[in-house]
Amino acid sequence: MEARHLRYALALAEHQHFGRAAAALGIAQPPLSKQIADLEREVGARLFDRTRRGVFPTAAGEAFLDRARRALTEMAAAVTDAGRAARGETGRLRLGFIASALLGPLPAVLSRFGRDRPEVRLELHEMGTSRSTAALIAGELDVAVGLGRPRGPGAEELVSVTIGRDDLVAVVGTAHPYAGLPSVSVEQLRRQQLIVAPGEDEPTTIAGLRALFGEDSAALHGATVARDVHTIIGLAVSGAGVGLGPSRMTSVPRKGAWFCRVTPRTSLPDLVLSFAEDDGSPVLTAFLAVLRANCPEAGASLDRRLGPGRPPERGPRER
User: What's the total number of domains in the chain?
Assistant: First the structure.
């Protein structure tokens, strides 16, 4: 039994005449009569009564036609759903990110992607860089945003592009002696109570601070550890010390906060977006298209790695 048999039966029930039904279907009457007879043999019951007044469904025919209508509706919906999934309009995207990524281009990318693909389920997980890298390699995430290029076994199978660059800045409350200064030196910071992000979550950042202050720096050993940039700023405004963090945290509006450049200029690890090279899912492809549109530098990197506008290769992770 094929879909055309269902359409033929429904057309005959609607027009109640073989000739009119055949004309509506765009076929000759004899083939329609044969197809209906074949259908009745396959079903094992007479579906239509042929009378002088016309052709009418039997009780068995009414039951069959009810299911046939629903079956054709479901088949049409299946075709529609398949097309939407192939275009990345449905499905899910699992993304892990560090909190400070929300101060960069990530919100604009997520906002546009959500508008363009409202029926894609976004599963967002805040986590440290090392954790999100491990989850991405294990196939538990589709995209990870963290600090620096992913490292460790399996990282060579990932595509990584820079979506943000940062320098080290200091933040103090307006009552602090450094408030009003355009910059502070590392030597000045050595004498302060520092507030930093946790090294176990962002090892590349803490490694950079150790290189800047010295491996055995008393300032770092006695530093207050804050969960994220918002906490760093809040503690600094409260007078708990001098906060150190990425320059993108200057975009956080906070009354009573003063930001200073750190001299010498100290670059922090890039904000990097990564995904599996063999993931050719349409949802990821759609997400990368939005990334290209919002982050030209990242788009250029993707084009160099994958080819202009080209999605990742389809592979074992295709969903």
Answer: 2
Q: Give yes or no for a contact between 146 and 216, defined as CB atoms under 8 angstroms apart.
A: no
Q: What is the pLDDT of residues 258-309, one digit of tens each?
A: 999 999 998 888 899 999 988 888 999 999 999 998 888 888 888 887 777 6
Look at residues 69, 86, 103 and tell me which one is the last residue of a structural domain: 86
In a domain, 264, yes or no: yes
Q: What is the CATH number of the domain that holds 47?
A: 1.10.10.10
Residue closest to 98 by CA, chosen among 243, 205, 251: 205
Residues 237 and 182 in one domain: yes
> Does residue 317 fall inside a structural domain?
no
289: in domain: no
Query: pLDDT tens across 180-214, in order?
Result: 999 999 999 988 999 988 754 455 566 677 778 87
Residue with tokens 């202009």: 308
Backbone angles phi, psi at 262, to 5 degrees: -105, 130
What number is the average pLDDT over the span 225-229? Answer: 85
Secondary structure of residue 177 in the 3-state scheme = coil
Pairing of strands 194-196, 242-246: parallel
Question: CB burial class (10 A; 0-12, 13-18, 19+) of residue 74?
Answer: exposed
Does residue 80 share a domain with residue 102? Answer: no
- In angstroms, what CA-CA distances link 170 with 94, 146, 194, 212, 237? 33, 21, 9, 14, 12
- Within 10 angstroms of residue 313's Cβ, the number of other Cβ atoms is 11
- Is residue 271 in a domain? yes
Q: How many residues does the chain have?
A: 319
Using only C-alpha atoms, the chain has a radius of gyration, in whole angstroms, of 32
CB-CB contact of 177 with 268 (8 Å): no
- SS3 of residue 314 by DSSP: coil
Tokens of 258: 């003063």
**Same-domain check for residues 56 and 170:** no
C-alpha distances in angstroms, 19 versus 10, 31, 86? 14, 11, 40
